[in-house]
């Protein structure tokens, strides 16, 4: 912004200079005009003296003629008789008034219709954001100043989801869809945000959105994943198998999410084989560990709360410690549940804490660790959280520190 105002002042000075040059020129012309009038008056006085001397007999007619000729010559040397007479009133007053009004009117018009806030935003976007909250703040400011920017609304929605703020993400996705139309991938992401915002509860409105997306694109990944989750939770295991099998066709087998979805399919098949009519309570909850378990793997996390936020919480508020794949779906790979009263403490995550038996924490190279606190006993409705911390599954030496110091 400093450079902007420097250039603005320079342009203003140039404008004032253009207005004041004619005023200075008029003043010079006026001085010349006054001097010419004085010379003419002196000339006329000199001629009158010569004629008086001729009448008195002091000068002859020849001397009078020579005196006149000499006076004419001196007047021509001192006076530019060809310059038209100037009128100084209009030539000086109007530019001076304009020179005074230009900066005042110009600044007033700029502050009313100008875009200094957009200039400031553009300059701030040149700097890399240091935190996710700073990135969100910039995107929120962008959509405020540029409400028709589709990219800004879309990236804001994605950032909200990455920071576990599904309610705001759903609103941003809806705004994006309003501008670009009901595209299947956007509908799938909207359904995902609404699903998590609703406490992972399925509804008919969600089903309608997913159906609309899959009617346009039967392979839309986000929608297929949600259909499988909803079907599994509703004990419709064959529907879950069908949805997730279709989803696997479009995923690279090397992708970390491939193994997770494959594990979900196996769990659905096991549940279907054991009891097709089983209720959620009868479905197997604890998978049997396989031979790939790494019993030595331990991921230690020091969890604490900042003193400022601790005063806003009660001892019974729920604390969630999550480990997610850095690249892959937002669903946690492992989680532990505590209460505020238990903090500060050190949490240890092992392969036994993996939510998906075939996708162990030790098998995922890059992880994201985060802590959230909820006073509603709902992980998706958390009021406070920590920054996401990147972790290496192979690095199990020093503990990772997570401090709950952000308000959502």
Question: Could you characterize the architecture of this molecule?
Answer:
The protein is built from 13 helices and eight strands. With 408 residues, the protein is of the alpha+beta class. It has helices at 2-55, 61-78, 88-113, 116-125, 132-145, 150-162, 166-180, 184-197, 204-216, 221-233, 237-248, 256-274, 307-310, and strands at residues 299-305, 318-325, 334-339, 345-349, 366-374, 384-386, 389-392, 400-407. Residues 84-91 and 278-293 have low confidence and may be disordered. A hairpin with an 8-residue loop joins strand 2 (318-325) and strand 3. It has three domains: 2-80 and 90-114; 182-274, Serine Threonine Protein Phosphatase 5, Tetratricopeptide repeat; 299-407. Strands 1, 2, 3, 4, 5, 6, 7 and 8 form an eight-stranded mixed β-sheet that branches. Helix 1 runs antiparallel to helix 2 (61-78) and helix 11 runs antiparallel to helix 12.
Largest beta-sheet details: 8 strands, mixed
**Low-confidence blocks of residues:** 84-91, 278-293
**Can you write the helix and strand succession as a string?**
HHHHHHHHHHHHEHEEEEEEE
Count of discrete domains: 3
* Radius of gyration over C-alpha positions, nearest whole angstrom: 42 Å
Shape estimate: elongated
* Structural class designation: alpha+beta
Number of strands: 8
The helix content, as a percent range, equals: 55-70%
Strand content: 5-15%
Work out the helix count: 13
How far the N terminus sits from the C terminus, by CA atoms, comes to 30 Å
Nearest-integer average pLDDT: 77
């Amino acid at each position: 912004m400093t450079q902007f105002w420097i250039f603005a002042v320079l342009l203003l000075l140039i404008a004032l200079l253009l207005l004041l040059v004619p005023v200075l020129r008029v003043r010079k012309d006026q001085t010349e005009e006054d001097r010419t009038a004085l010379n003419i008056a002196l000339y006329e006085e000199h001629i009158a003296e010569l004629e008086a001397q001729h009448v008195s007999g002091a000068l002859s007619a020849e001397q009078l003629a020579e005196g006149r000729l000499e006076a004419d010559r001196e007047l021509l040397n001192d006076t530019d008789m060809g310059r038209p007479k100037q009128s100084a009133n209009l030539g000086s007053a109007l530019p001076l008034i304009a020179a005074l009004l230009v900066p005042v009117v110009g600044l007033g018009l700029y502050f009313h219709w100008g875009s200094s806030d957009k200039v400031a935003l553009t300059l701030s976007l040149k700097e890399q954001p240091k935190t996710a909250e700073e990135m969100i703040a910039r995107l929120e400011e962008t959509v405020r100043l540029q409400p028709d920017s589709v990219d800004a609304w879309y990236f804001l929605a994605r950032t909200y989801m990455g920071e576990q703020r599904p309610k705001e993400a759903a609103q941003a996705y809806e705004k994006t869809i309003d501008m670009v139309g009901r595209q299947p991938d956007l509908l799938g992401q909207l359904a995902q945000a609404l699903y998590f915002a609703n406490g992972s509860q399925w509804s008919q409105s969600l089903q309608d959105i997913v159906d609309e997306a899959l009617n346009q694109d039967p392979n839309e990944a986000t929608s297929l994943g949600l259909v499988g989750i909803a079907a599994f939770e509703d004990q419709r295991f064959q529907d879950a198998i069908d949805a997730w099998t279709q989803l696997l066709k479009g995923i690279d087998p090397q992708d970390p999410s491939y193994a997770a979805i494959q594990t979900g399919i196996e769990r659905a098949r096991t549940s279907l084989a054991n009891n097709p009519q089983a209720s959620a309570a009868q479905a197997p909850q604890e998978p049997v560990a396989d031979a790939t378990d790494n019993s030595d793997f331990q991921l230690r996390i020091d969890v604490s709360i900042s003193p400022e936020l601790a005063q806003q919480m009660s001892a019974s508020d729920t604390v969630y410690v999550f480990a997610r794949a850095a690249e892959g779906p937002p669903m946690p790979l492992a989680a532990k549940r505590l209460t505020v009263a238990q903090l500060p403490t050190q949490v240890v995550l092992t392969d036994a804490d993996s939510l998906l038996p075939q996708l162990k924490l030790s098998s995922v190279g890059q992880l994201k660790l985060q802590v959230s606190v909820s006073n509603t006993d709902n992980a998706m409705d958390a009021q406070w959280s920590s920054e996401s911390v990147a972790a290496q599954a192979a690095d199990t030496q020093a503990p990772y520190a997570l401090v709950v110091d952000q308000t959502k």
